[in-house]
């Protein structure tokens, strides 16, 4: 025991100067004064960091006392984040996400986005035609989302849903319900993509069938135009978000199905990190859609205003993601 203590004491005496020097420099930088470090001090930090990591390696290999090893582990961790950690602050990182990371990630999924949009569009048209020909298809396609909007309802009650905000009493709860539903659909589209994209395609088709069936119901009562405005004031954002989530799921499915030279796990992991950036943005889009859905479309009752908002939001999203601009990475 005495030999071990003596060995630890000598080890510390020989190298402690470097440790204390690195600790002082890191403390100065961590107090927000990194800009005041001189050029010599900045150059010293990587050298001292490597010296401390070497000391830690020796301390572990020779089983020196636990307190010394713990101290060196803490110091190397702080040194690592200074030497190799990101140099951007939170606001800079958020700005970079909106200026570059999110738009570039969406643009790289343009093929998958087109496929999802096509599936949704075909399903919507198919449902519209099928329900127009046979009303029995409606309940199968819409299910519990009808909430009294079915062929048994009167035309007056259907129209009332489009324009009557019921004093605003249910707007908050309705927005939360729809945001939760749409968020779940988006997450499932993304998360189930690993199964070669098949569940993602089915979910996209299901959303299209539901929309087509509802449009057919209202069109049969002469309210097709009005229903379109009621849907699209939020749907321009919401449906775009769901389609992007589906595109992210397809990217993972393609990586699993066609990994190339990498293993399926590595390919799926790389695709998941890339698609995850898109999904962060999808959540933000769904928040915007939830506000428009729960508030905007119930308080704005003019059809032209609803369509104007829908066209404006869609144009802004398309410009944000796809319009070339200086400084944007290819």
Describe the structure.
The protein contains 12 helices and no strands. With 330 residues, the chain is mainly alpha-helical. The chain folds into 2 domains: 84 residues; 231 residues, no CATH class. The longest helix is centred in the last third of the chain and has 36 residues. About 2% of the residues have low confidence.
Q: Based on CA inertia axes, which overall geometry fits?
A: elongated
Give the terminus-to-terminus CA distance: 63 Å
Low-confidence parts: 167-172
Computed over alpha carbons, the radius of gyration is: 29 Å
**Main sheet makeup:** none
Task: State the helix count.
Answer: 12
Strand content: under 5%
What's the gist of this structure?
By secondary structure, the chain is mostly helical.
Sum up the structure in keywords.
single chain; 330 residues; mainly alpha; 2 domains; 12 helices
Give the arrangement of secondary structure elements:
Elements: H1 2-33, H2 39-61, H3 66-84, H4 90-108, H5 110-133, H6 137-142, H7 155-163, H8 171-191, H9 198-220, H10 224-257, H11 264-299, H12 303-322
Helix pairs in contact: 1-2, 1-3, 2-3, 4-11, 5-9, 5-10, 8-9, 8-10, 8-11, 9-10, 10-11, 10-12
């Amino acid at each position: 025991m005495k030999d071990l203590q003596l060995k630890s004491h000598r080890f510390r005496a020989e190298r402690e100067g470097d440790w204390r020097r690195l600790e002082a420099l890191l403390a100065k930088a961590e107090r927000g004064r990194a800009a005041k470090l001189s050029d010599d001090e900045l150059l010293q930090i990587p050298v001292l960091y490597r010296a401390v990591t070497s000391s830690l390696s020796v301390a572990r290999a020779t089983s020196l006392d636990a307190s010394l090893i713990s101290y060196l582990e803490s110091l190397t961790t702080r040194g690592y984040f200074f030497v190799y950690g990101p140099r951007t602050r939170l606001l800079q990182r958020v700005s970079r996400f909106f200026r570059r990371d999110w738009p570039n990630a969406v643009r790289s999924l343009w093929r998958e986005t087109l496929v999802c949009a096509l599936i949704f569009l075909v399903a919507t048209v198919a449902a519209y035609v099928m329900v127009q020909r046979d009303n029995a298809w409606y309940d199968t396609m819409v299910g519990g989302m009808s909430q009294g909007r079915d062929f048994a309802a009167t035309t007056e009650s259907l129209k009332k849903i489009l324009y009557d905000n019921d004093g605003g009493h249910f707007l908050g709860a309705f927005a939360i319900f729809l945001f939760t539903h749409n968020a779940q659909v988006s997450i499932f589209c993304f998360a189930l993509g690993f199964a070669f994209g098949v569940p993602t395609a089915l979910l996209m088709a299901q959303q299209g069938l539901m929309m087509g069936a509802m449009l057919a119901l209202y069109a049969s009562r002469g309210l097709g135009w009005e229903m379109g405005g009621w849907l699209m004031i939020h749907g321009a954002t919401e449906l775009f978000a769901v389609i992007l989530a589906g595109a992210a799921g397809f990217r993972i499915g393609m990586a699993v199905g066609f990994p190339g030279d990498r293993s399926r796990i590595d390919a799926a992991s790389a695709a998941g990190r890339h698609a995850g950036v898109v999904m962060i943005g999808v959540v933000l889009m769904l928040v915007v859609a939830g506000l428009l859905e729960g508030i905007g479309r119930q308080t704005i009752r003019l059809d032209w205003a609803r369509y104007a908002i829908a066209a404006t939001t869609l144009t802004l999203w398309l410009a944000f993601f796809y319009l070339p601009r200086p400084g944007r990475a290819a």
